Amino acid sequence: VQLVESGGGLVPPGGSLRLSCVGSGFIFDDYAIGWFRQVPGKEREEISCYGGGRSGSPSHAEAVKGRFALSRENTENTVWLYMNKLKPEDTAVYYCAAGRSCWGPEFDYWGRGTQVTVSS
Fold this sequence. Notes:
Layout: E1 2-6, E2 9-11, E3 17-24, E4 32-38, E5 45-50, E6 58-60, E7 68-73, E8 78-83, E9 92-99, E10 107-110, E11 114-118
Parallel strand pairs: 2-11
Antiparallel strand pairs: 1-3, 3-8, 4-5, 4-9, 5-6, 7-8, 9-10, 9-11
């Protein structure tokens, strides 16, 4: 089982990035794919999630609602996180994870993360 994030980097405030999460080794379609971020010294927080199964849909935490968006393509085992209007406080390591449901405690598989830095 593997989840691999990519697309992180350095971007100025107000800029945009697209992160990718590619899964393998499990039935990708069945799983919710969540995006989390963590800053050193702070708890990891779930910011966005795309539900699994036929009725899966995207949802976002208040901190990123209106700025971040998700898309999912199960034929490619991929979920993309589109981050717009980035702020310095969005700087963090971003992780994707696969679980049975969004916004719950049980995410079974995790990627290693990709660094996003928002700075001028």
